[in-house]
Predict the 3D structure of the following.
Amino acid sequence: MNEFSIGGMTSIFHNQIPFAGLREGTFYTPNVATAQLGLRYQLFSNTYLTGRANVLFSNFISKSNFFTIPDFLSGYAMTFTYNFALGPLELSAMYSDQSRRVIGYVNIGIPF
């Protein structure tokens, strides 16, 4: 069971594929192809607004023996970022066409 974990906005652990619109570990797959497009706009000094859209294709080589995942996923996120002394504070609203839910995501500081 050496599969990729799909979801989350930042890469936290080994074999994780960040995907806007899904929480960490929402899906697992043995093969994946993904693309993400983002646009960042500086509102004020140390304040940014970032929009992201991504798509994911799976199950094109083999299917998982343990998990089921759709062949296609799409997701979007809008992130407000403020840079302060402890690092960036990011507040995101994410949406996935497959789950049809808006979920929140908060990231404080730089992961290490």
The CA atoms of residues 27 and 59 lie 12 Å apart. The first strand starts at residue 4 and ends at 6.
